[in-house]
Design brief:
The structure is a single chain. By secondary structure, the chain is an alpha+beta fold. It contains four helices and nine strands. The chain has two domains: about 60 residues, lambda repressor-like DNA-binding domains (434 Repressor (Amino-terminal Domain)); about 100 residues, Jelly Rolls, CATH 2.60.120.10. Strands 1-2-3-9-4-7 form a six-stranded antiparallel sheet, with no helix packed on it.
Length: about 200
């Protein structure tokens, strides 16, 4: 049997029951129909959905098959809401050359930092280097991306990733403000004082 354990939302029984009910209803199935498909007693299925019973591994697999979902999906807690950051809530800071940097994820992501950088025409970050893989998606404008001896001119929709330990430069070569999305490991770019660098 699966062991019950306490967690936010009422433990394993409540989580499995909630997910089983949600998937059953989304599939438009009655408890009786799930019982037919799984060959499990309707009363037992009702107890599971109400968090009064924790299914055995065999029963969990049977219920998942009846609902046409992977068994692991019944163990996931969809009760925890997604993290949402509105445009107005993004932390914003100014950067050299008139650039504006907003943190898209507002620090909610544990593993990556996602920045949207707006740069006036003719401005660049200047040649620099740092730790951590770095990914760029061009949102608007025309950009010259230089890393060591490699140079590319990119437009909206283009993507580039590089090893930022190699000195690189990012320049808006278009006639209008350009925007670029920059993604890198959250703890990879530390300044000597312990802060995070905002350059791309």
């Amino acid at each position: 049997m699966l062991q019950e354990k306490s967690s936010q939302g009422g433990g394993v029984a409540a989580s499995v029951g909630r997910e089983a009910r949600r998937w059953r209803q989304s599939r438009g199935l009655t408890l009786a129909r799930v019982g037919e498909r799984s060959r499990l007693n309707v009363g037992y299925l009702s107890q599971i959905e109400n968090g009064k019973a924790v299914p055995s591994l065999e029963a969990l697999a049977a219920i998942a098959a009846a609902l046409d979902v992977p068994p692991a999906w019944l163990l996931l807690d969809s009760h925890t809401p997604p993290r949402v950051v509105t445009l107005a809530d993004r932390p914003r800071r100014d950067a050299p050359g008139g650039a504006a940097v907003t943190e898209v994820d507002a620090g909610t992501s544990r593993d990556v930092c996602i920045l949207e950088v707006a740069v006036p025409p003719g401005q660049s970050t200047g040649v620099h280097a740092h730790q951590g893989d770095e990914h760029h998606l061009i949102l608007s404008g025309r950009w010259r991306m230089t890393q060591g001896e490699h140079e590319y001119e990119l437009e909206p929709g283009d993507y580039i990733a590089w090893d930022p330990t190699v000195p690189h430069d990012v320049e808006n070569v278009g006639d209008e403000e350009g925007r670029i999305l920059v993604i890198y490991p959250r703890h990879a770019r530390r300044t000597p004082d312990g802060g995070e660098r905002g350059r791309s």
